[in-house]
Design a protein that fits this description.
alpha+beta; 2 domains; 3-stranded mixed β-sheet; globular; 14 helices; Beta-Lactamase; 6-stranded antiparallel β-sheet; GMP Synthetase, Chain A, domain 3
Length: about 375
């Protein structure tokens, strides 16, 4: 039985709420339970109980997660803990050959086998919701949560910044750290960095990119097609998620990724002030040209993060709309000149294909 079916059967949520969560999962990623919590339909404690019922494994409670075994954590390592979404809790019994581990996917035998090999012990999984696991990975390993998983503050909500459930962002735009410097913490695996093709030649036509988008079976397939199309056509193409008044970095292409000063998934740009991103978002129409604000505060911070030298003189931002609401922004620039008009035209075409693909994926998720 699936989580959504179990919640519906027990009247924990309604059908409309499930459909909203499935829609958000298609658009923003994350597990279904994560999206249900973020939408305020259930809380973490109720989600934990249902995940335990569904999987048959005990719950990794905050008490257990606060008292983890430091030696086991060091043995697993920060990168593997983040990749496997797993947190060692401690030894079971006195033989020191049996370990309890909090796992987001406790029924994934491949994850459990790898944990057993890494820790050199038998594994008993304890189920933990994704949001809670990410909080404790940040707390114990110093692995900062991606901007997508930092829940934004809502008027009248419990903005308890010290709790695991919420590290709040301003509802109408995050304040970014100057020059994208981060506190000295362990880094996530390099997979979170901006991607680039080793061959800068054009590798995918607009028509071929459209075909890939039309047949994509996951949001990542849509993004992959956009990045493949960008190769050789521009110096930067970024795909942003739109959530709670912020443009959150999701996927990106850079012709010179070594110049980047920040991980794309750490970027969060406010849509509250005048910028090319804000203009495309609010109008629901492509923005092409010089950024609208003379000071260019948002673009300047973005360019600094990307290591864009010289700064672009003109940019293009194309919204991807789902039911008349921007869910993504495609940002692109070419250094040393304005984007080619054909690039603009083709990005608009691709955005339309993305819209259709998202609607198809949402229908499929609702019907599954």
């Amino acid at each position: 039985m699936k989580l959504g079916t179990l919640l519906l059967r027990n009247a924990a949520i309604g059908l409309a709420q499930l459909e909203s969560a499935l829609r958000n999962q298609v658009l923003y990623g994350g597990r279904l339970g994560t999206n249900l919590v973020e939408l305020g339909f259930i809380d973490l404690e109720l989600l934990s109980a249902y995940l335990a019922e569904l999987s048959g494994f005990p719950i990794a409670t905050p008490t257990l997660l606060d008292a983890v075994d430091g030696g086991l954590m060091d043995k697993l390592g920060a990168d593997d803990a983040h990749r496997l979404r797993a947190i060692p809790l401690g030894f079971i019994g006195d033989a020191m050959d049996h370990v309890a581990v909090a796992v987001v996917e406790p029924t994934n035998t491949q994850v459990l086998d790898e944990l057993a090999a890494r820790l050199g012990a038998r594994i008993t999984p304890f189920v933990v919701p994704e949001l809670r696991a990410l909080y404790y990975l940040e707390k114990h390993f110093g692995l900062p949560r991606r901007a997508r998983f930092i829940r934004s503050a809502r008027p009248g909500s419990e903005a308890d910044e010290g709790s695991e459930r919420r590290r709040s962002q301003p509802a109408q735009g995050m304040v970014m750290p100057p020059e994208f410097t981060l506190e000295p913490r362990r880094k996530r695996p390099s997979g979170s960095l901006l991607a680039a093709s080793p061959n800068p030649a054009v590798t995918l036509s607009c028509g071929a990119a459209c075909e890939r988008i039309d047949t994509a079976n996951h949001r990542d397939g849509i993004a992959d097609a956009l990045l493949a199309y960008a190769t050789g056509r521009c110096d930067a193409l970024l795909v942003f998620l739109i959530r709670d008044g912020n443009a959150l970095g999701w996927r990106g292409y850079l012709s010179n990724p070594a110049a980047a000063k920040a991980s794309l998934e750490d970027l969060s740009l406010p849509l509250a002030g005048a910028s090319s991103l804000q203009s495309a978002h609010d109008a629901g129409q492509p923005f092409v040209g010089v950024p609208p604000s003379a000071a260019r505060p948002v673009e300047t911070k973005l360019w600094a993060a990307l290591g864009a030298v010289p700064e672009p003189t003109s940019v293009v931002v194309v919204p991807i709309l789902v039911k008349q609401r921007a869910v993504n922004l495609i940002y692109a620039h070419t250094l040393g000149g304005a984007p080619d008009p054909q690039l603009v035209t083709e990005l608009v075409d691709l955005a339309g294909r993305c819209q259709t693909a998202y609607l198809r994926l949402i229908r499929q998720a609702r019907g599954s």
